[in-house]
Amino acid sequence: MEQTSFPPMSRVAICGGTHGNELTGVYVVREMQKQKVDKLGSASVTAVLANPRATDVCRRYIEKDLNRCFTDALLRSPITDSTPYELRRAQELNAQLGPKGSEEAVDLLIDLHNTTANMGLCLIFYSLDWITLHIYKYIQSKMTNVPVRAIQLDVPMSDAYSLESVGKHGFAIEVGPQPNGVLRADIFNAVKSAVDLTLTWLQEFSSGCTFEGGEVEAYTFAKHVDYPRDPAGEITAAVHPELQDKDFKLLRSGDPVFLMFSGETVTHEGEELYPFFVNECAYYEKNIAFQLARRTTFTLPSICLGN
Amino acid sequence: MEQTSFPPMSRVAICGGTHGNELTGVYVVREMQKQKVDKLGSASVTAVLANPRATDVCRRYIEKDLNRCFTDALLRSPITDSTPYELRRAQELNAQLGPKGSEEAVDLLIDLHNTTANMGLCLIFYSLDWITLHIYKYIQSKMTNVPVRAIQLDVPMSDAYSLESVGKHGFAIEVGPQPNGVLRADIFNAVKSAVDLTLTWLQEFSSGCTFEGGEVEAYTFAKHVDYPRDPAGEITAAVHPELQDKDFKLLRSGDPVFLMFSGETVTHEGEELYPFFVNECAYYEKNIAFQLARRTTFTLPSICLGN
């Protein structure tokens, strides 16, 4: 594959607290603000607490999930007296860090998240993007104490609903397991390392380094699975102990997925797929017990700075 | 030690959802209600969802922590328009299951809780009580897949603030680690086993079995430790990775307890004590990073049914 060149990356945003009860991002961003981190060589770095009101009360959101507000349609919707706080905040963030899809948008936007699922450290991204896949490859090669994986969502950019879609390049860093409202030192350190490695990669890229191509693996979203429920909508089972904490372990036909409160086991049927977001707290209300993915290998070109 | 006899236990209450985001108790109680469990030999069993409004919105509480509302003073306080929901609910529960300290109170009240700390299964009780210590000894002897411990709080009964103090005998079952808002099958099964073993013990007691005396160990509360904080009250450290998940592992002078965001380690100084509730989510707002206890051995008399 040929070497591909990319223009300079001069503006970077590190965001946390998009969900106010996911504390790693809240404290990484606050520490960056306290340390007044704002420069990286010739590039500017901005640390942003995305949902300060939800952070103050340690909840995911006040009125509406902020990280579902960044579609083109919602970013363009008129503000009225009844507009939820998070939609106003999304439009503010889009004005500050975007506008999404424009030349004025920050070059790289990283949004820091936690999950209650045993997912290790995952980079979540929308479309294929050589810059972000190279950063992923770099982080994966340098971090040894936590598994580093990538998840690709299959959503067109106009429908991309989360904050990182506002940058020219962007990804979420999703790390777990950590309960909402709890800060674990091991996970704080892992996320801080991933952010520091990203900034180091950008410095090396800006100083003219070439990053060799190669192969990376990513998990591409296939489908959601909901909990078994009774006619009133109440769940009637928990994730099976053999699936709990087994994110990214291939699920084969016949493997247990739910343990009914009545004692029976429900098994997976059909295509072999990789589970992730297994028993994520915030997804009970979204009717998702776990998600399933296919594993794909991507071949990357070498990249370097160009114009 | 002599054999001690106790009057029959004819009314039992199993409560859950006192904290609406601690899901094990919510689902164990709902399942008992669905299965219409209401009899145990000649005894009555009542399954009670203690804080239904907080459970509906999956929060610890709506206005005030329900499990701090059962002191004599609060149970006697007059209800006005500005009385918080949870204090009204505490007085309702006291009328239904108590009144606390009276002959009409249920004989045994068990309240089901979860913690984000790695505490296994703990029975938490106020004063020394041969009945509850015998139930603890019985559960501990039968459960092999999870550590079973007892914690004694040093609070006089009039100031006892939590729901289980309403029963003639009572304890909380506190199980973790489980994130708030998440239901784990392994923890659901452990709590269900502990409840079933308690009911089996009661049946054996009612049918005239003598329970042999012996020794049990319990952890008696010594003190709280708060997070390091800056002048604005913001935490400036996380629980150290060497203490995280190490509940009930003896903490010696010089052992790490906090990792400052700036990188330094804070150590434990002074008396050797046993940590518990290490990094419990709900205790951030109560200014508690972990609690410390002494380990004590109690010698129990044999007990049997009397009048």
Task: Note the main attributes of this structure.
homodimer, 307 residues, alpha/beta, Aminopeptidase, N-terminal domain of TfIIb, 2 domains, three-stranded antiparallel beta sheet, 6 helices, 27% strand, globular, N-acyl-aromatic-L-amino acid amidohydrolase (chains A, B), AstE_AspA_cat (chains A, B)
Describe the structure.
The structure is a homodimer of 307-residue chains. With 307 residues, the first copy, chain A, is α/β, with parallel strands linked by helices. The model of chain A has no long low-confidence stretch (mean pLDDT 95). Chain A is globular. Chain A has a ten-stranded mixed beta sheet with strand order 3-4-2-5-8-6-7-9-14-13. In chain A, strands 10-11-12 form a three-stranded antiparallel beta sheet, with no helix packed on it. Chain A has a two-stranded parallel ribbon with strand order 1-15. In chain A, 23% of the residues lie in helices and 27% in strands. The first copy, chain A, folds into two domains: 4-217 and 299-305, Zn peptidases (Aminopeptidase), CATH 3.40.630.10; 224-290, N-terminal domain of TfIIb (Single Sheet), CATH 2.20.25.160. At the A-B interface, helix 1 and helix 6 of A face helix 1 and helix 6 of B. Chains A, B: Residues 215-294 form the AstE/AspA barrel-sandwich hybrid domain. Chains A, B: It is a peripheral membrane protein. Chains A, B: Pfam families: AstE_AspA_cat (PF24827), AstE_AspA_hybrid (PF04952).
